[in-house]
Amino acid sequence: MASAADQMAQSISLSKFAKATDLKKRLWFTIGALIIFRLLSYVPLPGVDPTALGLLSQQTQGGVLDFFNTFSGGSLSRMSLIALGVMPYITASIVVQLATSLSPTLAAIKKDGESGRKRLNQYTRYGTVGLTAVQGYFIAVGLETLGAAQGIQAVIEPGMMFRVAAVISLIGGTMFLMWLGEQITSRGIGNGVSLIIMAGIVAHLPVTLVNLLEGGRSGSLDPIKLIGIVVAVVVLILFICFMERAQRRILIQYPKRQTQRGMQADRSHLPLKINTAGVIPPIFASSLLLMPLTISQFAGQRVAGESKWGDFIITLNQYLQHGSPVYMLLYGAGIIFFSFFYTAVVFNPEETADNLKRNGGFIPGIRPGKNTENYFDYVLTRITVIGAAYLTIICLLPEYLVTALQIPFYLGGTSLLIVVNVTMDTVTQIQSHLLAHQYGDLIKKAKLKGNRLR
């Protein structure tokens, strides 16, 4: 039986949207922020020759940087101010969260409430600056030697001044995106960082579709494969929607209380999502891969053929090509690890069991306290196994099939997962704002009727 909130949510129509002034302001702010992000992706680094950027794209084509270039909306291939996107910020937040779990000092700061959260955010910003500086330096060094074998110079005036300018520009671009994401989260709709990543992916969608249809028209792509891709994408989207809404509901019972029908016990359900971590594990795993691979990719161009160390870096980059077994293994292991790690961060069985005990709630057949905590941990571990397997299959299987069948389709399972997940989360927040606005209208009408009766 649907609850009153569900029935009201179903009755929301577009006519209510026109009256929700605050929601419209939030949507316009979000759209404006994403437009600024897309405009910045076309502003090149100072001192870079735009004619050599095409060569950079060709040399890294098919490599793992193509995958991360999709996340940044093509900013990496154009060497724009926001070439690194929000990945250094995500990497820094991972490091801080891992340190919080391992360090008692940081764990105590986290428990300080709002002040502790602000201190941890400050540490994350410092880490973002450091990681961006390191990656930016190796990118600048790699750009100086880019195209040297072909007699093309990507940097107009190589030297320390260019490196300093490039590092400062990349730090400024990444920090601005970090700030823009925070502004979208607080003043717009949805999670700002996730929306920025999704905007970069969606920006590649028209080109991907045009290339796919052109391949079918010219005959370079088998029509059967083209139809198979369309069907596979639709099935994949439906499967993602199903899994993202899948829940394991745990029955919670509260002590009996006196009602008009006599003594009755209150019952509710504690929903545990199969994929509690959401889209975070693939983003975290790809972010951790980006840091060393960016350094090795551009450092390899600098020292290629100069020493055994340079040959080792080149060999490493070949093994880490997008779709290679080593890349798949590292990426899959990262997804599984962060599925369990982030689930442990989001849901604390001990805290949940204590809250139930204080409120008099219990699980039928399970004693309150430690037994309830163990039960939550038992259930959560098993559904997280399913969630981690689902994320790993979604992210890796399409990549493997595209590589094995040599299909020119670059919007893989990870990209589809992020787009669908972020879209569902944003739509849910929009519905929540509309529902809150509708409740506000009902309260106002009730007050007016009450004043008239007086």
Automatic annotation (TrEMBL):
Its main location: membrane. It is found in: Cell membrane; Membrane. The chain crosses the membrane at residues 27-45, 81-102, 123-140, 160-180, 192-212, 224-243, 277-299, 326-348, 379-401, 407-424. Coiled coil: none annotated. Pfam families: SecY (PF00344). It comes from the Bacteria. PROSITE patterns: SECY_1, SECY_2. Keywords: Cell membrane, Membrane, Protein transport, Translocation, Transmembrane, Transmembrane helix, Transport. NCBIfam families: 3a0501s007. Component of the Sec protein translocase complex. Heterotrimer consisting of SecY, SecE and SecG subunits. The heterotrimers can form oligomers, although 1 heterotrimer is thought to be able to translocate proteins. Interacts with the ribosome. Interacts with SecDF, and other proteins may be involved. Interacts with SecA. The central subunit of the protein translocation channel SecYEG. Consists of two halves formed by TMs 1-5 and 6-10. These two domains form a lateral gate at the front which open onto the bilayer between TMs 2 and 7, and are clamped together by SecE at the back. The channel is closed by both a pore ring composed of hydrophobic SecY resides and a short helix (helix 2A) on the extracellular side of the membrane which forms a plug. The plug probably moves laterally to allow the channel to open. The ring and the pore may move independently. This is Protein translocase subunit SecY. It comes from Sphingomonas faeni.
